[in-house]
Amino acid sequence: MSHGYHEGPEDAILYDGCDECETRSKSIEGLLGLDSPNLRLLIDRMLAVELGRIDRTPTAWYRTGTEKVAGRNLYYVYVLVERLEAYTFFDRLTREEGRS
Ligand SMILES: [Zn+2]
To answer: Which of 16, 18, 72, 88 has the least C-beta neighbours within 10 A?
Structure first.
């Protein structure tokens, strides 16, 4: 599979209408196949869009629908990592309380 014709905003990372971009956007495995600069850019954009949405002060946007799919998938990973950190924190707290 390779990139088809890209039509859309010049600064998009993943484009609508391109089989490879659309396939990559749908899975974490696909997103991990992005080169580092583009993955970093997508993560930065995801944080700006998704956290802006939580604060109700959206200041950023995804450039394409395909990018939105990718950004939402990355956001779910972000939430998962946050929860894992919370579990680890409370596990550590419980263990420390058990010691005293
Ligand atoms: Zn593409």
So the answer is: 88
